[in-house]
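Much of what follows relies on a compact textual record of a protein's fold. Here is one such record, which you should read through line by line:
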Amino acid sequence: QLQLVESGGGLVQPGGSLRLSCAASGFSLDYYVIAWFRQAPGEEREGVSCISRSGENTKYADSVKGRFTVSRDNAKNTAYLQIDSLSPEDTAIYYCAADRRLFGNACELYAPRYNYWGQGAQVTVSS
């Protein structure tokens, strides 16, 4: 009943852009912190970005800072990850995640803190 559905993945050339979407069903994202993680073949899952409930606070991994932008539209119950200047090193399965917060305006790139996960979206960067 509580689901996050991802879309927007695919194949893109180096230097290209992509926007991932994460739509919530069964609950309102208004009360949830949202984060994005990714996992490349043979690599451990790593935190990419997160955004607080209000959207006023965000965090980015050093490897993506300046290229990735996280946002949310609570009225549409959807979160987004805009990915620019893609390189082959960005190839991975990207997951959105959400966690309910009673209060506060922070977020974190720590996977065990998130209770709800999307199914993953494959992003492949290749020429």
